[in-house]
Amino acid sequence: MKNFATVAAFAAGANALVGRGNTCCFHITASGGASGSVGQLDDGQNRIYGDLSEAQFCIDSNGAITDANGRGCIVTDATTQFQCDEGATPMPGFSISSEGQLSYQGDQDFVACETGLNGGLNIYTTESDDVTQCQDVSLMADSCSGSSSGSGSSSAAGPSSTPVAGSSIPGFVPSSSASVPSVPSVPGGGSSIPGSVPSSSASVPSVPGGGSSMPPSPPQQVTVQTTMTSTYCPESSVPIIPVPGPSSVPGPAGSEIPSYPQPTGIPSSGIPSSGTPSSGTPALPGASSPPTSSQSSAVPPSQPSETATGSQPSGTQSASGSCPTDLSGEYEFPHLIIPVDSSSPDTAAGTSYNGTVSSTVSSIFNFDIPSSDAGKTCSLVFLFPHKEDLETSSYSFSGDGKIDFASLESVATQSTSYSNVPAVKEDYGQFTVSPGNSYVISSFSCPAGQAVSYEMKNAGSTDLNFFEDYNPSPLGLYITVC
User: What ranges does the record list as Polar residues composition bias (predicted)?
Assistant: First the structure.
């Protein structure tokens, strides 16, 4: 893609100013506890490792950063995660020192914490109780050194000129008829633009060092326009998952790790980026009311959430305000799946690709709701297609299909076991699930910028083990957004 930056330099008296709209673009490399280039998931989460291509960022004179897709980069309130969100206003306060070290609000210390996905580490400004396995890191920019919050420190150079005191732009005073030759590159903060600024009528003397007087004639203005061409190679954040056999139920790891194509739906927070929980406990207002005896929430997988014939759950029903029970629009994928086993209450199984419900095992699903979902409606949905409709997943299922769904008071981590499962915040009731149906578990105002956890546990004789997968037909627990 091409980025066009216009650099306007004004020489007035003994001061030189840079236009506030200037930006300088750079890449980030981490060092310290974790080292490597910083890439991005498709949803804008910045990540070290994880087999991601190097991401490009641009900083303006206010210290606000955007990524190559134009998304505003922010530090989230809940967990202080450094990420770039679609539609977000970039936060000011970032700066790059003369040595190229990135800082936020004057602090050069960052932490990188495990996500549980492909070795990737999310980046935070501070460590919290809701993230685990963190390491201290420093972030270095490969250009734009000297760019700082509010400083506008890009620079331009004229021929044999001496910098004016108090400015990062070397002073030059061309005549009003001066022509500007082509400029090879857009300057980084603190760097210079080579090239001369000739006058069509007379040579222009260089400006002496700080405090010297200017030529008698009033200074004029010159605008230097440059075009920067850069190549952006996005890295897919589609989950790298093992391919299940035609009749087997896949486990959490596999020897062959292919990458799957994007789904037809539009995930609003990417797929998946496990382990970025928030310190706040999300509010889940107003679950819809229990069903009447004539209603059912079983819905064919690729249809909107209307009532249809099928098994009749006894929990929360689909309401008129719920979102679709398919993935044709925006949706959230679980970023962490944690199985807990009552037969081994103190054993933390860690992250899994599978959701499991049995006589002893229940599963907890973490979702990270981006700030861009503020003001929207979220629906927790369970999608359970026929096995013959699956392309890249599978499941095993037996028993009466009774499953209890609940939201939890806090998020699970990779160290969560049966003995320390977070308390239930709201029990959505019992659903009787069967293949070929989709279920709206609950609808609520999206807890934007927060992380939330939900539990699926046995409420009868159900034995279900499924590979969470959005590929046709989607299978598992999701949050749809509308």
Answer: 306-325
Query: Which one has a higher pLDDT value, 450 or 278?
Result: 450
What residue type is 15 in one-letter code?
N
* Count of Cβ atoms closer than 10 Å to residue 4 Cβ: 10
User: In terms of Cα–Cα distance, which of 56, 220, 61 is closest to 154?
Assistant: 61
Two tokens at 372? 């861009």
The proportion of the chain whose per-residue pLDDT surpasses 70, expressed as a percent, equals 60
- 475 neighbors 390 (Cβ within 8 angstroms): yes
| Residue 361 · residue 340 · CB < 8 Å | yes
Contact present, 463 and 385 (Cβ < 8 Å)? no
Cα distances (angstroms) measured from residue 68 to each of 6, 26, 59, 343, 370: 17, 10, 11, 49, 19
How far from 460 is each of 354, 398, 430, 432, CA to CA, in Å? 20, 11, 9, 9
Q: Is there a cis peptide before residue 473, judged by omega within 30 degrees of 0? A: yes
Q: What is the DSSP string of 30-65?
A: EEESS-EEEEE-TT-BEEESSS-PBPEEEEETTS-E
Mean pLDDT (whole number) for 267-290 = 36
The token duo for 315 is: 């929990």
Q: Contact at 8 Å (CB) between 238 and 259?
A: yes
Residue 140 contacts residue 38 (beta carbons within 8 Å): no
Closest residue by Cα to residue 193 from 245, 154, 145, 140: 154
Q: Bridge partners of 167?
A: none
Transcribe 388-409 into DSSP letters: GG-SS--EEEES--EEEEEEES
Sheet of 451-458, strand order: 336-341, 361-368, 451-458, 402-408, 424-432
Round to whole Å and give the CA distance between 376 and 324: 13
Residue 424: both structure tokens together: 């239930």
Half-sphere exposure of 353 (CA within 13 A, CB side): 23
Is residue 58 exposed (0-12), middle (13-18) or buried (19+ Cβ within 10 Å)? buried
**pLDDT tens digits, 26-77:** 999 999 988 899 999 988 899 998 788 899 999 998 999 999 999 999 999 8
Instruction: Give the pairing type, strands 336-341 and 361-368.
Output: antiparallel
Give tens-digit pLDDT for 377-410.
999 999 999 999 998 889 999 999 999 999 999 9
Q: What is the pTM of this model?
A: 0.40
Question: Tens digits of per-residue pLDDT, 232-257?
Answer: 444 433 333 333 333 333 443 333 33
